């Protein structure tokens, strides 16, 4: 029994750490973008290709709209695997892809932009960030309103999965 406790403490970070991908996994498929044309495609066309956006935002004058999609790949950083130290210094590496679709006041696609970023975050910092955000889910509210506006269904589970993407 005395042997089991140190082994458990050593292996716990390994058990808790794992790779994960969430968000829209098709964002990096170039064929998907072939179906969309600037000045011709509409919000409904983008929805048909990529589904529900993860965030929606409007310009101050409501003349332009921005749909955002995320794909996040996370994996434990090297410190996570160091016994004892991993409990304090461990964290995750995240590769985030964001794709932005800009629309005009007639819901026509103006422009598409892609942004990729790699980042590392300590587990304790990530936990504190999520706790400080609390149960707020402003993105879900905006996306829900947008889906109602274009007559498409709103998926609450999908909206909640990307709640904490930075």
General description of the model:
Strand 4 (91-103) and strand 5 (109-122) form a beta hairpin. The longest helix has 13 residues, at 4-16. Strands 1, 2, 3, 4 and 5 form a five-stranded antiparallel sheet that branches. With 166 residues, the protein is of the alpha+beta class. The chain has seven helices and five strands; from the N terminus they run αβααββαββααα. The N and C termini lie far apart (43 Å). The radius of gyration is 20 Å and the shape is elongated. It has helices at 4-16, 30-33, 43-50, 85-89, 123-133, 138-150, 156-161; strands at 20-23, 55-58, 65-76, 91-103, 109-122.
Nearest-integer average pLDDT: 83
Characterize the overall form.
elongated
Q: Calculate Rg over CA atoms.
A: 20 Å
Tally of helical segments: 7
Structural class: alpha+beta
- What's the helical proportion of residues? 25-40%
Q: In this structure, how is the largest beta sheet organized?
A: 5 strands, antiparallel
N-to-C SSE string, H for helix and E for strand:
HEHHEEHEEHHH
Number of strands: 5
Approximate strand percentage: 25-35%
Distance between the termini: 43 Å
List unreliable stretches of 5+ residues. Answer: 6-17
